[in-house]
Amino acid sequence: MEASRSFGKSALKVLLGLVFIISAVLKVVGIDRFEIYIYSYHFFSLNFSFIVARLAIILELVLGLGLISHTLHKLYWWGSMAMLAGYTLLLLYALIIGRNDSCHCFGDFLQLDPKQSLIKNGVLMLLFLLIFKMKCWTTPFRWIILCLVVLASAIGVFVASPPDNLTSNSNPEQNLQVELFDAMLDDAPLDSLKLKEGKQVVCFFSTGCEYCQMAAQKLSLMQQYYGFPAEDITYLFMGNEEGIEKFYEQSESTRYRDVLYPEVSRLLRAVNGNLPVIVFLENGHMVHEYGFRNMEEAEIKAFMAS
What we know:
single chain; alpha/beta; Glutaredoxin; 2 domains; 58% helix
């Protein structure tokens, strides 16, 4: 009976470790949206959110692999409970401020809102209580195993998904063809929008482009946080009306002035065939140009605040 109970606890411990590992791997697969989710709370800057996202993933991997290793049981047990408690507090905060979007705890594979994720965390914490008291291996190499697990997890995460702020070119190639773009602003349907007056943000998006959706979400979060006038942001879409509605739904972006640009080939020539492109204008002159991966929050903040 005792052997059977011990085996059951060991199997449960391995299962819980696998849950953490699977959660971490799925977060890496959907790292871009997980980064934006962390940034959306504005606890951290955009660049630091890249690092926080990876540290959270590394922690899950370390705990998951540690649980499976059956060494340092109390350390991994308390670490797992502390992590679950931290996530639970974040989810409670999300509920308090009225959020119901996915917490990305299993990346994009499984969409759970804060209430559902709280239930999931509660179940996991109850299961951890069942394995609080159990024997573990006392190998003299247990601390070496821990160091190797931490090192392997950190290297694996940063190699598999290096942060954009560490990999993006500080002087990226300009995609916007300025003369073509300037001519677009002077012609219908953009000529009536007065985009050459004051500060304006013009975004080139395709309705079906996932990176366009995430770029729109980043920009929307910055606009709301820094108080830039919403009426000075314009989305130029390539697609159709139905696609525009779906774009806003999937990007969770604020709805700004948008234009379904009728000449797709002209739009693509203006951005050298690359989407998304976000252009910051002041009195008709380009100040900044960004794609999805090289958006500089400090520059955007300075533009919006001045």
